[in-house]
Amino acid sequence: MTTQELLNSGKLELYVLGELSEADAREVETASAGNPEVNEEIRTLQNALRKYIMCFEKTPPLGFKREVLEELLRQGKEKQAEENARKEASEKFEAIKKEAEEKTRTSKVLLPIFIITSVLSLLSAAFFAYRMHNANNSIELLSSDNSLVKEASLKEKEVLLNEIVAVRGTLEQALLSVEVLKDSNYKKINMHTLDGATKVPLYWNKSSGELFIDAALLQPITDDQTYQLWTINEGIPEHSGTVVPQLKYLQKMKNVSVAEEFTLTIEQKGETTDPSFENKYAAVALD
Amino acid sequence: MATSAKEKIQQDHLITEETLVDLLKNKDQQALEYLYDHYSPAVYGIVLRIANSEKAAEKIFKEVFSEILKRITEFNFKTERFFDWLLRIARNTALELVSQRGFIQNNQPDIVPVKVHEGFWGNPEPLVSKDFLNTLNPEQKHYLDLIYFQGLTIEQIAEKFNQPVGIVRSKAKAALHMLKALHS
User: Fold this and answer.
1) Could A19 and B183 be called an inter-chain contact, meaning their C-beta atoms sit closer than 8 Å?
2) Torsion of the alpha carbons at B130, B133, B134 and B135, rounded to the nearest 10
């Protein structure tokens, strides 16, 4: 569209009146941009319209100025207050943001420290837990040991007790032996080994029948053998008891009221009913 | 520059539009008073013509001034004259508020003194003591009034008065041509 065509199209009038579509208005603005003739026409039309509008000028009512200016002042103050509040809020937000960033930065610095500290704490906790566990185990072991100790102690006590009992028994036997030896009712009767080298004394109370043997000098024998004492009366042997060799005190045998001969034999373990005189160790015939 | 402009306002009450805009952008109270003193008749005239009621016009007028100050930062001398921008803001704001609040635009005779000359469509003609205005015929004035003060488009006018769009468009252009001719 040429300048003249545009000037005669009537579009400029409609443009000034605001009656063109957006596309047409843009076309007019583009055409007028470097076109003084079109610009001048538009300006002339605008001035004419302005002149028409100004025909309706009217001074506002008296006192209206004060109202309007006060209203504008109030709005200005409100707006200023809003802006201040917004600014304050913005500053607070910025401060919070800055603080958050600072915290983030601090966190970035402290994070490794926290991690290291946490790891160390964890390791320490694990170490102490381990120590505690060991300690518990030790306590348990100690407790267990204590039980063992107690058990050992009990066993030891039992052993001791047994020993005490044994000693006591030995002592009693010894005391008994002393009493037998002191008692004149007991008659010492020595059995002799077959070679005559060793004596094996017997202490017999003929009236009470009590009989004791002193085996302190008997020779040790194998584990499967035992010394057996026999009382022979009218040619018939009667078992008077097993004799333990090398005991320091007198051993009490079965009571014997009548006896013509005492014989000590070495028998196999368990054989106490029938003496084997082939293994006669010592013997004594009575008057 | 601002201080000298203010001094100028105090001295001779005459400053350039550029200086005025700068002062208004800085929320200068004296510049606001200057704006009111020099531009309120034009603004109030538009508002009253659009609102068609003094009571409504007073309310709208305050809001128009508020809108002018609110949007003063948008103003650019390179694209528009300040007075044209001011009138445009006043017109658009008033039309928008009237539309929003349902003010009736029926050109009641108590708003602007009219002599009851029936126009082309039977509308009253505003009686204003302007030779310029009196040279326009009622039909042309009515077209301009419908377009500028009532914010109707060519199509809306054609529909409202059951006229062909082309005819209405030609009449509107002719009215503005007449204004141009009278202006020159």
Assistant:
1) no
2) 130
**Residues whose CB is less than 8 angstroms from the CB of residue B21 and which lie 6 or more positions away in sequence, other chains included:** B72, B75, B77, B82
CATH numbers and ranges of domains, chain A: 3-54 (no CATH), 183-285 (2.60.40)
Q: Taking the complete model, does pTM exceed 0.90, yes or no?
A: no
Q: What is the chain A residue with the closest CA to B166?
A: A10
pLDDT tens profile A34-82: 888 888 888 888 888 888 888 888 999 888 888 888 888 888 888 788 8
Do the chains contact at B41 and A55, CB–CB below 8 Å? no
**Cross-chain CB nearest to B184 (options A44, A54, A69):** A44
| Confidence band of A91 (pLDDT split at 50, 70, 90) | confident
Instruction: Provide ipTM, 2 decimals.
Output: 0.78
Q: How many domains does chain B have?
A: 2
Of B37, B112, B172, the CB nearest to A17: B172
| Domain of residue B144, CATH code | 1.10.10.10
The CATH code of the domain that includes B35 is 1.10.1740.10
Residue B94 pLDDT grade (very low, low, confident, very high; cuts 50, 70, 90): very high
Indicate which of A7, A41, A57, A83 best probes the interface with B, i.e. most B CBs within 10 Å of its own CB. A57
Alpha helix (H) residue ranges in A34-63: 36-54
Cβ–Cβ below 8 Å for A68 and B62? yes
**Burial tier of B70 (Cβ tally within 10 Å: 0-12, 13-18, 19+):** middle
- Burial level of B91, CB count in 10 A (0-12/13-18/19+)? buried
Nearest CB to B66: which of A10, A18, A75?
A75
Cross-chain residue pair A71–B126, CB shorter than 8 Å: no
Least confident of A103-112, A120-129, A190-199: A103-112
Name the residue facing B44 among A13, A16, A58 (closest C-beta).
Answer: A58
Are B95 and B121 members of one domain? no
Nearest-Cα residue of chain A relative to residue B50 = A56
